[in-house]
Design a protein that fits this description.
The complex is a heterodimer of chains A (about 230) and B (about 650). Chain A has about 230 residues and is an alpha+beta fold. Helix content of chain A is about 45%, strand content about 25%. Chain A has helices at about 1-25, 35-70, 85-115, 220-234, and strands at about 120-130, 130-135, 145, 150, 155-160, 165-170, 175-180, 185-190, 195-200, 215-220. Chain B is mainly α and about 650 residues long. Chain B folds into 3 domains: about 5-95, no CATH class; about 125-585, Up-down Bundle (Cytochrome C Oxidase, Chain A), CATH 1.20.210.10; about 610-650, no CATH class. The chains are: A alpha+beta (about 230), B mainly alpha (about 650). Chains A and B meet through helix 2, helix 3, strand 7 and strand 9 of A and helix 6, helix 12, helix 13, helix 14 and helix 15 of B.
């Protein structure tokens, strides 16, 4: 029996290592370019570690059982009549419960942190329309552009509006996404942390041109931003 | 119409009942597909005239309004005409009009030739097979659509289709797979197995059962034929979100109405299962002695009965907005856009469990009998189904974390969503524990069951990611979701359907499938399934939204790989079809109980006798008492055994 446990653990470790390699060798998440996404990536890793453990345990037992106790088709004996084990059942009810509740608490914490607007964020209105995004800078005399430009390290509050159907404002590198819904106003916060060019994507099916409803987001320094505002404000 | 046509088709007509004009006349006016076809036409014309007359009467210009005529004539009156034509209402109409009805002697039971499958048949075993064949036809159509849009997606940009067709293909693919494959395929398997497992001669309402089945192809034809509508098929996704759906071309109405017919079929079947399970259990078959497949269908049926009316409502509202100019979901008229999503998901989240719980039941049967061990923690397995049922109704808004609904609703919905991992985890761990120290027969049903357990763990865990609101905000509406639902619905539900088909194939047909081809089918499917859907997690997280025909160049290579893998996945299905068809026609004759299972369906001949049991069995123990010396699930001929015992005493 002891030998069996060692073999089972060995299989579990091998599977765990393989899955961990899959998780770390590929860069599954886009480079984070916002404070909000940094926090989301922390939960992502929490969930990933949890998943690797659970997946490895389940698959190891399946593989081990099949390897150890497989019988030929003409075998006509029965296995031992084990009907259950209350202790074990309590354990596998309680452990996942603790894990998911922990994940829930961490998530709720991050959610509230990501939803906390600081002092005077930059107000940007994102207007979805079949099939283009328009951005309106309410702090600077409501000028509108088709390109999103944000100053780095300054919190921006996007207020979403739609003139026709539901769209969804998404910048993969910001990790933040929110639907633009006709008739109601929705909002989301983004604090960009690195300069560069990013894609703005519509994530909610909005009709024939949904796939092409993309725009560009440019995160620049505060000086460059002020310059850009001056040029566009006119 | 004379009473003669209610005689079973395979019995000889007495001479004086011979129809006066010969067989042509009979084929035309007797219940069947031919009468169904022309009565559908008559129904359409009557519906059209009704619209024209009423519009004329009230002076609504223009009198001819295609979408209204299509709804009333094509999607209500014609299907009713078809159902009347094939004879689904004959008994009730005879009863209502006071004419002599055919006494319920179940003479329509059994199928003696392939033609009998195209008639209204009240035998649950025939209906089960009708369901399964029909659903696999639509599975093939839906699968071909997937191949088609995967070809389109192999490269960025538009190659083969225009964008309305692409959206249509994606939407109809999902709709067929959900409403015409997974849900009714489970209903088909359960139709065949549940009455047998309960020790019942049939379902509680055999005529209702027949009607439920015939409602289904109506929905399927409606979804597929939407491609013929001017403007193309419905292209707002299977979710049909308002207001996008309200501005769609005519094809959207096919979705609105098709869902009604599929939903009605679901609800009627679920009611039938509930009454059957509650009232028709054999003596001694207490709830705690029911096989887990029966438990699973009991909870599924409760979900169906409670939830399905909500999707019916959501689609009626959209249709009213579209053709009657109401404004339930249009903000200009005071409508509430998110209202649609709340009503829709109040059905469609429980529907996820409707598409999963019967599979849990199948897998419990297969793993227990192929491991030769009692199911681990039977009562907790049954209770966790009930747990999922209750929790399943309190999580719908996790589909709307980024939809702009009330912020405070997100955390409670996240908690309930994460809690569902607990009963689901219990089930997975219990299956795995059932394997432990068993005597494992690694045949095709078992391979699919174990494939299910491992793939479903991946789908379940990606579901835990999505349950966390902040991760969902990043991953929602991307290919990560596409990967997740295919791990749950393909790696999950479809694998269990295959497991169930292979497991009950000998019972249904009396013949054995080819084990070698079955294993080929499994390994091809398993590998190509993972090659298709696992990379989708990656492209989704990296920034590829779902439901797009065009995407960032950076995802080109991976999408090409995914498309190739999906073609292999499609091809693996050919192995299955070939195996099933050839085995059905000329496979080796199967034993009554090739798996040495204890549940009741295996204690009768393969295929089972017309009324299932010569004598109602007496259930005396649990269904999975493998390895318990002398344990029995049931005494199959209690009368005979009692007599024998008496003789011994005497």
């Amino acid at each position: 029996m002891r030998k069996g446990i060692v073999q089972l653990v060995a299989i579990g470790v091998v599977i765990g290592v393989l899955v961990t390699l899959v998780a770390v060798l590929f860069q599954w998440l886009p480079t984070s370019a916002s404070e909000e996404f940094d926090r989301i990536q922390d939960i992502y890793w929490f969930a990933t570690i949890m998943s690797i453990v659970i997946f490895s345990v389940v698959v190891a037992v399946v593989v081990y059982s099949v390897w150890k106790w497989r019988v030929p088709a003409d075998d006509d004996l029965d296995g031992p009549p084990i009907h259950g084990n209350t202790g074990l059942e309590i354990v596998w009810t309680a452990v996942p419960a603790i894990l998911v509740i922990a994940l829930g608490i961490v998530s709720a914490f991050v959610l509230s942190k990501n939803g906390e607007a600081g002092n005077r964020p930059l107000e940007v209105k994102a207007i979805g329309q079949q099939f283009a995004w328009k951005f309106e800078y309410s702090d600077y005399g409501n000028f509108t552009t088709g390109e999103l430009v944000l100053p780095v390290d300054r919190e921006a509050r996007f207020t979403m509006e739609s003139v026709d159907v539901i769209h969804s404002f998404w910048v993969p590198n910001f990790g933040q996404k929110m639907d633009a819904v006709p008739g109601i106003e929705t909002s989301i916060l983004v604090t960009p942390t690195r300069t560069g060019e990013f894609a703005v994507v519509c994530a909610e099916l909005c009709g024939l041109g949904h796939a092409t409803m993309r725009a560009k987001a440019r995160v620049v320094t505060q000086n460059e931003f002020d310059q850009w505002v001056k040029e566009n404000r006119a | 119409m004379t009473a003669t046509h209610h005689d079973p088709p395979h019995t000889e007509y007495p001479a004086h009942f011979e129809p006066p004009h010969g067989p042509t006349w009979k084929a035309f006016f007797g219940p069947g597909i031919v009468r169904g076809a022309w009565m559908a036409g008559v129904g359409f014309v009557l519906g059209m005239l009704l619209v024209l007359v009423l519009r004329r009467w009230w002076g609504w210009e223009p009198y001819w309004k295609t979408d209204v005529i299509l709804v009333v004539g094509g999607m209500v009156a014609a299907p009713l005409g078809f159902l009347g034509g094939i004879g689904a209402f004959d008994y009730w109409l005879y009863y209502i009009s006071g004419r002599p009805t055919r006494p319920e002697d179940h003479s329509g039971h059994g199928a003696h030739s392939w033609k009998d499958y195209f008639r209204v048949n009240t035998d649950h075993k025939v209906i089960g097979i009708q369901y399964l064949v029909t659903t696999f036809v639509f599975f093939t159509i839906g699968g071909l659509m997937a191949m088609f849009f995967r070809a389109e997606l192999a490269q960025p940009g538009l190659q083969f289709v225009d964008s309305q067709t692409f959206n249509g293909l994606v939407s109809v693919h999902a709709t067929l797979m959900i409403f015409l494959f997974i849900i009714p395929a489970f209903a088909g398997l359960a139709n065949f197995a549940v009455p047998l497992m309960l020790g019942a001669p049939d379902m509680a309402f055999p005529r209702l059962n027949a009607l439920s089945f015939w409602l289904l192809p109506i929905a399927g034809v409606m979804f597929v034929s939407s491609f013929l509508a001017p403007g193309g098929a419905f292209g707002a996704g299977w979710t049909g979100y308002a207001p996008l759906a309200e501005g769609q071309p005519l094809g959207q109405t096919f979705f609105n109405m098709g869902v009604q017919w599929a939903g009605a079929s679901s609800i009627l079947t679920a009611l039938n299962f509930l009454v059957t399970i509650i009232t028709m259990r054999a003596p001694g078959m207490t709830f705690w002695r029911m096989p887990l497949l029966v438990w699973a269908n009991f909870t599924t049926s409760l979900l169906v009965v409670i939830a399905t009316p909500f999707i019916a409502g959501s689609q009626f509202f959209v249709m009213f907005d579209r053709i009657m100019h109401t404004s339930f979901f249009t903000p200009e008229g005071g409508g509430y856009v998110l209202g649609y999503q709340h009503i829709f998901w109040f059905y469609s989240h429980p529907a996820v469990y409707i598409m999963m719980l019967p599979g849990f039941g199948i897998v419990s049967e297969v793993i227990s009998s192929m491991s030769r061990k009692p199911i681990f923690g039977y009562r907790l397995m049954a209770l966790s189904l009930m747990g999922i049922l209750v929790l399943g109704f309190s999580v719908w808004a996790h589909h709307m974390f980024i939809a702009g609904m009330a912020d405070w609703l997100r955390v409670p919905m996240m908690i309930t969503t994460l809690l569902i991992a607990i009963p689901t985890g219990i089930k997975v761990f219990s299956w795995v524990a059932t394997l432990w120290r068993g005597r494992i027969h690694l045949n095709t049903p078992m391979l699919f069951a174990l494939g299910f357990v491992t793939m479903f763990v991946i789908g379940g865990l990606s579901g835990v990611y999505l349950g966390s609101v902040p991760i969902d905000i990043a991953a929602s509406d991307t290919y990560f979701i596409v990967a997740h639902i295919h791990y749950v619905l393909f790696g999950g539900s479809v694998f269990t359907i295959f497991a169930g088909i292979y497991y009950w194939f000998p019972k249904m047909t009396g013949r054995m499938y080819s084990e070698r081809l079955g294993k080929w089918h499994f390994w091809l499917t398993f590998v190509s399934f993972n090659a298709t859907f696992f990379p989708m997690h990656y492209v989704g997280l990296r920034g590829m939204p779902r439901r797009v025909f065009d995407y960032d160049e950076a995802f080109g290579d991976l999408n090409f790989v995914i498309s190739i893998a999906s073609f292999v996945l499609g091809a693996s299905f050919i192995v299955f079809v070939y195996n099933i068809v050839t085995s059905w026609v000329r496979g080796p004759i199967a034993d009554a109980n090739p798996w040495r299972a204890h549940t009741l369906e295996w204690q009768v001949s393969s295929p089972p006798p017309i009324f299932n049991f010569d004598e109602i069995p007496q259930v005396v123990g649990g269904p999975y008492e493998y390895g318990v010396p002398g344990a029995r699930h049931a005494i199959m001929s209690p009368g005979r055994e009692a007599k024998e015992a008496e003789e011994v005493h005497a």
